[in-house]
Automatic annotation (TrEMBL):
EC number assigned by the record: 2.4.2.10
Species: Dermacoccus abyssi
The protein's name: Orotate phosphoribosyltransferase
Pfam families for this protein: Pribosyltran
Gene: pyrE
Superkingdom assignment: Bacteria
């Protein structure tokens, strides 16, 4: 087993053990589900975050990007995990945060972090249901003058997001499916 295979297996087990909550829940999309995949329990964990960074960097190794980010809050720890994984490998990837709305004070920026204007960026998310959050981030990045090279998520709920994102001309990848998580 390669190191990345071991990382994927360890991350998958942590997700199964710590992030899947069973019971009725309303998702951000407004849809109801019998379970919730709370990946912030993973992406903000000192044990799991390094795995997230390495697995997501491996997942997106065919993409050409210099910065990674997405809509706050789900994307933020994923992007910073990838930034740290790149640094640990002797490489550089910047991270950025897309606000849900522009700030009314200070510089009034919608996107925080190093400038992404004219740069190739990857939009990330922890869990994707409808594709609305990453597509909002894609639109904000394009408005800022960035070239979005794709969208990557830790877990895809297989509820239409892939098709919506690909309809925008973007490649969409996920580290884990609902089958992988034992939820399909």
């Amino acid at each position: 087993m390669t190191n990345i295979d071991a990382d994927r297996a360890a991350l998958l087990q942590l997700i199964k053990d710590q992030a899947i909550v069973h019971g009725k829940v309303t998702l951000s999309s407004g849809k109801e589900a019998d379970y919730y995949v709370d990946l912030r329990r993973i992406s903000l964990s000192g044990e799991a975050a390094p795995l997230v960074g390495r697995v997501m960097r491996d997942l997106t190794s065919d993409f050409d990007y210099v910065a990674v980010g997405g809509l706050t809050l789900g994307a933020d720890p994923v992007a910073t995990s990838m930034l740290h994984a790149a640094a640990a490998a002797g490489e550089r990837v910047d991270a950025f945060v897309v606000r849900k709305a522009g700030k009314a004070h200070g510089l009034q920026q919608r996107i925080e972090g190093p400038s992404i204007k004219g740069r190739r960026v990857l939009v990330v998310e922890d869990t994707t249901t409808t594709g609305a959050s990453p597509l909002e981030a894609v639109a904000a990045c394009r408005e800022e003058g960035a070239e979005v090279v794709g969208v990557a998520t830790i877990a895809d709920r297989a509820t239409g997001s892939k098709e919506k994102i690909e309809a925008e001309g973007l490649t969409y990848v996920s580290a884990f499916s609902m089958e992988d998580l034992g939820l399909a």
